[in-house]
User: What shape does this take?
Amino acid sequence: MADKSLLSGIDSPADVKKLTPQQLPQLCEEIRQVLIHTVSQTGGHLASNLGVVELTVALHRVFDSPEDKFVWDVGHQSYTHKLLTGRRERFASLRQEGGLSGFTRRSESEHDAFIAGHSSTSISAALGMTRAGQLQKKQNYVVAIIGDGALTGGMAYEALNDAGKGNDRLIVILNHNDMSISKNVGAFAKYLSNIRGRKGYLRMKRSVEKTLDKTPVIGKRLKNALLSSKSALKELIFRSTIFESLGFTYLGPVDGHNLRDLTETLENAKNFDKPVLIHVCTKKGKGYSFAEQNPGAYHGVSNFDAQKGSDEDNYCEDSFSCEFGRELSRIADQDDKICAVTAAMKYGTGLQYFARDHRERFFDVGIAEQHAVTFSAGLAVSGMLPVFCVYSTFLQRAYDQILHDAAIEKTHIVLGVDRAGVVGEDGETHQGVFDVSLLSAIPGVTIFSPSSYLELRNCLHTALYRTQGVVAVRYPRGNDRHPYDEEAFSSDNYVYQNGGGDVILLTYGREFWAVYQAAQCLREHGVAVSLLKLTRICPVDGEVMDILTGYSYVFFFEEGVWSGGVSQNLLTRLAMAGWQGHADITAIDDRFIPQAKVQRALQILGLDVDSIVQKVLMQVKRVSEAM
Ligand SMILES: Cc1ncc(C[n+]2csc(CCOP(=O)(O)OP(=O)(O)O)c2C)c(N)n1
Assistant: This one.
């Protein structure tokens, strides 16, 4: 990159405003180079960011952050915003331990108006800020930037509904690129493409307005009456959009890569004392041919060679997700009741095989986890066997639907809970560490937590055909790579290895392999340890309690939150049964886990092999010294 780059002179949004309009294309080009270079090193959301470079530059030219607030939906497309708001020098630390977040965080910068990571929240947050500003007599602008993918999420409609009724000075920018992670789905996606297709819509609308303005006596009155009405006549004359019918002023569609048009439209949006929606059309992956050609694969990438492009598709064949998806598709070959449901994560959850082989029973419902659960329950009460595959973190959205719409009447739905446990570089907003506590609190829910592909397949069969009600099979991100004999540690209930002595280590899921290695190490240190690996973690078999009460030291290791977790539940039951041994829990205590590589995060949490060995040695020594 040239020494005298424009970007290197930008330390705050004020510097963006100092540039001439002629300099802006160069700035955008430099930003794209930094995005490609950095994400090729750190991994991250490339295509989404390349698509909003001009939009972000225009926003910082027209508005004054941090007084004016930008609320980025999901926050995965905020990299250019970070580069322009004083974080350029730290940009290489993106998604690394201690580095910049891959999403927006208020704690990271005064220019990040709101936390993000989960989708479809921006309009709600922005409306709250707008109304707070009005109460406090502030004059600032609040802008929500939401993608057409995020606009498939129900919360966005709740917010539009609320915003449209008033005269709040809220600006919503719809970043329309036809993509969610994969191609966007649903009726609204079709509708947006349709209004984008109305070429010259704005021009046409303005000319109708001008003509009416010039019409003596009744012109102005007619125009105002039409603009404020929600009538079919207005629809006919102005070819209104649904947004106008909802009470927004609609501006667009605007070419999201044309800085002049963008700037003009944003300036124009400032003039309204009511909610405005600007429809901006962008190309996901813009400026990097690999990403333009395959925006889905470049939505989120690991590090790659920027010259050659990433050789990943947006899924890895050797993963728990794909193993689950392949097995589900095989089962569906034999059973035509099986349906697969995803909330916009077909590849992420390994459902591409099912979608290919059983198209008519595959349902991508958009970013709509709540709908996905209740929709699955609807399938189930009508005689189908639905499996909703969803990341643990996004399942949090659908808690009431699981409880109310499925669990109370023991409706048989299977949840494939993907990315269960620590997830790594996505950080706090994406950790899959709450599902066990949340789900196990609901009466009648069964949870399996397999440690290997073999167990995963077995658990899926058990969940489908030998379990009632709501059943979750939870599995981690990544693959099953360990040198051990998975047959020996496979069950759909529990595996017990009696090592003699007084100490037993209890765990489940992926954490088992660390505990297993630690047990071998402890034996080398002369400590006899037994192992208990749970596969069905809720409800826990009575036999498990019998085994545990035979030991004096029980160590629990859990890759999930402490409160309401398996360890806490079992320990309470042990105490109530009068057990008087020594217990120790290693689980995630009262904190959110920041971004770091998975192995490193597990180490920080005391869940890696060394930490387990040290802990057991120390505790056993401490207790025996005290006796
Ligand atoms: C509740 C929730 N479900 C799923 C996701 C995963 N996710 C992240 S970005 C994304 C697609 C967003 O598409 P869009 O809003 O159009 O933005 P684009 O990347 O196309 O710019 C999805 C499904 C999420 N962040 N939150």
In short: Residues 48, 51, 74, 76-77, 118-119, 147-150, 175, 177, 179-181, 284, 299, 343-344, 367, 369, 394, 397 surround thiamine diphosphate (CB under 6 Å). The chain has 26 helices and 17 strands. The mean pLDDT is 94.
